[in-house]
Amino acid sequence: MLDSRDPLAIEMRGFPVKKRKFIPIVFLVFILFFPQKTLASTKMNGLVVENSQVKIIENQKLIIEGDIIIKPNGTLIIKNSDITLNSHYKNQYWILINSGGLFLVENSILREGSVPNLAQVGKFGRIENFRLGETVIQPRGNNATVILRNSTSELRIGPDGESTVILESSYLSILFWRSLPSVNTKVINSSIQIMHIWLHGDRKERIQLSNLQPGKNQNLHLFIENATLHIENSQILRYSLALWSAYPLNNCRKDVTIQNSQLSEIFAVFPKGSNIKLWNIKPRFFENWDIHQNMEGKGVPWNLKLKNVYVNKWKLDFHGIAEVDNSVFHLDTWDRANVTVENSIIVSNHHTRGGYIKLVNSVISDRPEYFTGVRFLYQPITEIYNPLYIYELENSTLGPYAELSISDDRIHVILKGDFSIKIPPEKVHWFGGTITREFKVIVLDRNNKPLSNQTLVLLASNGEEIWRKDTNRNGLLYFNLTFNKENYKEAFLLQVVNNSKISRKVSFFTDTPIILSKVEGKTANAINIVSSSICFVVLVVIILYVAHRKLKR
Q1: Residues 321 and 337: beta-carbon distance below 8 Å
Q2: Which of 19, 203, 303, 372 lies deepest, with the highest CB count within 10 Å?
């Protein structure tokens, strides 16, 4: 969560995005030349460069719906062009460069698609309303290479093992450098919004980093796990640090000390097999701190010390079992992680690729200018990935400053418990998948005592009866509704059979528990009587007024 005292906070505030109108024309592959100054837009469905093939895109304005894949030893050159990789949600599309492949971008612009809730930073490079993109350019495999020269990219770059990245005189949203074997990354005379340093590796070693401060004319050289990061005469607007293991691995064995620094984010991965408790993890200044002052448990192979460091945000990624209390953080989960969060605020984002998550006395919400992105994602990166998406909430709230995105038909989320959804309907982005909500209903008499054996009926919007059920001896009943992108705005009617005035509209956005009371029916009757009386009085007044006018004539 950004703090007004943080000089970086202003960088994350939103600016309006101007929607661009695109005119489709026919796209010709290989070398294309259009000398006109104002380029029309071409739409295409993905792009594949075959083995050892060379493709050149020059003087083009393209909207690409799909992945860009460069197969081994293939080459894709983009010159003097404006390219939008039109992802609609996080990790929908990728740019993948395989072994021996080359992705060369010169004098061009790479834009993110219509992914909702992206942070905006104003003018940056050649883009007026620059956004921190979610789409990844990933070189992977021996000698896979990415080169950006004199270019501006909202897309982020994340090099995999044995690959090379070169930025020369360019503007980039995010570079996440991972200390994977033989990763070679050079940043020269360039500007980066967020420089992520992801520490990783089985080798046990002590790592000390200092003076990670935003500013111009930065120079930095790191050599970890045979991976190299070289920054020369470049502007870094934010630094972030990660203690990272890819799911389901456990291979970040680093003892890390950060000194005299200002970090936009610390991204801490608690790997599969870990079982930990965390408390009081919040953005603040750390004078002399060790993670074990606020953590206990087992299965975490790394250690973290902070000395004179300000941390703007914590991103906690759980692959095992965790309890978090009294904290403010970005929450990520994977597969079947089991995470309980109490008395906390989840800000920035909640990315779930599966898990059993329990929220108690907690809120998922950020601030009016930047909503927490609640994103249900599916990412099968290993054969053992078989996620559950189960949420149990107790006295908790989703929103109001939150945005929901569900992205894949393979996702089925279960939401149950007592909670409020205050997310505005226009902030729900439903691309696929389903969410089943369990609704708890309590029926009370005029003295607020539970009423047993009360028959309730649920009606669809067209009046069709869906079910009838009776309350138990505690005046309770439970029912489920499954929502998808077609029906999540639909309203249902829940009512007591022998008293239709005791009713409630039910939708995806309804708070639970739902309380139906005979006081409501009594109140409704009273309102009807008062309304009728008022109408009668008004009618009498009108009649008398008309009669009076006639007598005067």
Answers
A1: yes
A2: 372
Structure tokens belonging to residue 375? 């994103």
| The total number of structural domains that make up the chain | 3
Rounded Cα–Cα distance for residues 446 and 519 (Å): 5
Residue 199 structure tokens? 């520490």
Query: pLDDT tens for residues 45-59?
Result: 999 999 999 999 999
Q: Report if residue 474 sits inside a domain.
A: yes
| Per-residue tokens: 268 | 């801490």
Confidence of residue 500 (pLDDT cuts 50, 70, 90): confident
Residues 551 and 465 in one domain: yes
Q: Which domain holds residue 358?
A: 334-423
For residues 106 and 546, what is the distance between their CA atoms, to the nearest angstrom? 83
Q: Are 518 and 467 part of one and the same domain?
A: yes
Task: List own/partner pairs for 497-505 with CB under 8 A and 24 or more apart.
Answer: 497/455, 497/456, 497/457, 497/468, 498/455, 501/525
Domain boundary among 161, 178, 195: 178
At 544, the pLDDT band (50, 70, 90 cuts) reads: very low
Say if residue 311 is exposed, middle or buried (CB neighbours under 10 Å; 0-12, 13-18, 19+).
Answer: buried
238's tokens = 């934010």
Chain centroid, CA 461 distance in Å: 32
Query: In terms of C-beta density within 10 A (0-12 exposed, 13-18 middle, 19 or more buried), how is residue 529 classed?
Result: exposed
> Confidence class of residue 38 from pLDDT cuts 50, 70 and 90?
low
Beta bridge pairs of residue 268? 243, 316
Q: Which of 126, 160, 178 is the last residue of a domain?
A: 178
Helix (H) or strand (E) holding 383: none
**CA 144 to each of CA 74, 139, 160, 224, 501: distance values in angstroms, whole numbers, following the listed order:** 10, 5, 9, 20, 68
Looking at the structure, do residues 407 and 473 belong to the same domain, yes or no? no
Structure tokens at 520: 């409501």
CB 252 within 8 A of CB 242: no
pLDDT of residue 380: 77
> Which of the 8 DSSP states describes residue 120?
B
94 HSE (CA, 13 A, CB side):
12
Examine the domain organization and report whether 142 and 37 are in the same domain.
yes
Complete DSSP assignment for 472-534: -TTSEEEEEEEE-TTTTT--EEEEETTEEEEEEEE-TT--BSEEEEHHHHHHHHHHHHHHHHH
